[in-house]
Design brief:
The chain is an alpha+beta fold. The chain has two helices and seven strands, in the order E-H-E-E-E-H-E-E-E. A hairpin with a 7-residue loop joins strand 6 and strand 7. The two termini are 14 Å apart.
Length: 163
Amino acid sequence: MAGFRLLAEYAVPLDGIDEPTLAEFAAYWRRKAGKRSFATRDDISPGDLVDGLGSIRIAMIEPDGSFRFRLYGSKSTNPDQVDMTGKTTKDYADREFAALVERHYGMVAADGIGRCWHIVGAVDEGRYEYQRVVLPLSYSGTEMDALIVKSARIKNEALRWES
């Protein structure tokens, strides 16, 4: 599969997410961040996220403006259908999809404000919609050096790949 095309996107306020798993994920992150602008990796327990762990990504912020996936959940999908663990956003074969991911991740990395987007896209197999939440994360405990991301499919038409 290839040929991702962005048809539309719009921002969704974190407190206005209507997709239940993403709303719960954002609320969990807020509880863990507390008064900080980010949660730390030590705050996040995989056991707390067991139901949605497969759709979570953790991306380290690289000096060159790319993002290296430290974790790429087994249910995370992309137009390339590749496990991106250990790879960067520059390794996506589908460059239009990569540009969208890098733009979304870059906005959060630039100002440390978590965001959600509703995305309408198309690939060769058909049109689909999903939402992506991107939240600041810290491995160092003192500064944002990573992002934690979760997506949820909303609508899929004629796609052969698993959600």
